[in-house]
Design goal:
Elements: H1 4-11, E1 39-46, H2 51-54, E2 59-64, H3 77-80, E3 88-89, H4 92-104, E4 110-113, H5 119-131, E5 138-142, H6 148-152, E6 160-163, H7 170-177, H8 182-197, E7 201-202, E8 208-217, H9 223-236, E9 242-246, H10 271-283, E10 289-292, E11 304-305
Parallel strand pairs: 2-4, 4-5, 5-6, 6-8, 8-9, 9-10
Antiparallel strand pairs: 1-2, 1-3, 7-8, 10-11
Helix pairs in contact: 4-5, 9-10
The structure holds iron/sulfur cluster.
Length: about 300
């Protein structure tokens, strides 16, 4: 039986900064393409995350379907639009059981991927899992476009935040995800996340126990934007967080008629631009960073060097 408060949150949905007001109890009516019941596409031990997250045994990763941001270059389009046909609905108790199963399989942590549009259910599921023996850290993996009010529902339940900071420029975020306010919203969200976790902590094996990893996927032709993101993160958080600079952008193959990539995104990222950004990150004094190998390929399996 779904909790009445949770259902009300989905009835006139303002969970994310889009604030659509959609009634998700009647189906996936909002910009996130998600109804009111969490849909999980895949749960697995993930070995391709940053080393303090994947460790040696893997990160217990749960991929949720749908996404409020809907970037036109999305590297996980099938999952974010909920069109794989592989997703299964989970109520809060079933989610809690899923986390406990991943813990049983040896996961270093639970890693919730793009769960922001299901925050009320996720918060309840985490409480249930913790009451039933979940002890490993919980990581929250996000596009960075989250409302403060919703993030506060996770206070005390999340140990590690792994948000993206995708764009600095408002014109870029408008063109690529219809969110002119992306940078401002993301800055506020990261501040709230950092307020909840504080500086990062690793255990004696180098596995992250709490803290924040901010990811930035470089886009072709947007080196200036990347530098502005680096400037902000290094000035605001310095070495109290990790910064993960990602190079695996891949133009998709136009099989989706409702999306059209601008010309500048119809190519891979020049490796020289990635190397320049990595050097810039180091020049800003950032020592806690992850840099990827050349042409990592599948975004589920990025290879990181710290
Ligand atoms: S979570 Fe979905 S329905 Fe709710 S405000 Fe965001 S995009 Fe709209």
């Amino acid at each position: 039986m779904r909790d009445g408060i949770i259902i009300r949150k989905y009835e006139n949905c303002i969970i994310c900064p889009r604030r659509c007001g959609a009634d998700r109890t009647k189906g996936p009516n909002g910009a996130c393409h998600a109804g009111s019941e969490p849909v999980v596409n895949l749960a697995m031990l993930h070995h391709g995350e940053e080393p303090p997250i994947s460790g040696t045994k893997g990160s217990g990763t749960v991929f949720f379907e749908g996404c409020p941001l809907g970037c036109i270059f999305c590297q996980n389009y099938d999952i974010s639009r909920g069109i794989t046909g592989a997703g299964k609905t989970y109520d809060e108790d079933a989610l809690a059981a899923l986390y406990l199963d991943l813990q049983e399989k040896g996961a270093h942590n639970i890693n919730l991927v793009t769960a922001g549009h299901f925050i009320p259910s996720v918060a309840k599921s985490l409480r249930a899992a913790k009451e039933n023996g979940l002890t490993i850290p919980v990581a929250y993996n996000s596009g960075g476009y989250e409302s403060i009010e919703s993030l506060k529902l996770l206070d005390g339940l999340i140990d590690i935040y792994m948000p993206d900071m995708k764009f600095f420029s408002s014109s870029l975020s408008t063109e690529l995800c219809r969110a002119p306010d992306y940078f401002k919203i993301c800055c506020d969200a990261l501040n709230e996340m950092y307020r909840q976790t504080g500086p990062f902590v690793l255990d004696e094996d180098g596995i992250m126990q709490k803290g924040m990893i901010v990811r930035h996927l470089m886009l072709p032709g947007q080196l200036f934007d990347t530098k502005k993101v680096i400037d902000y993160l290094t000035k605001t958080f310095g070495n109290n967080i990790y910064i993960s600079l990602m190079n695996q952008y891949t133009p998709f193959d136009y099989k989706y008629k409702d999306m059209k990539l601008p010309a500048f995104l119809q190519r891979k990222l020049p490796q020289g631009h990635y190397d320049t950004a990595a050097d810039y990150l180091i020049l800003q004094g950032q020592t806690n960073a992850f840099i990827q190998d050349d042409a990592s390929g599948d975004e589920l399996l990025p290879d990181f060097n710290s």
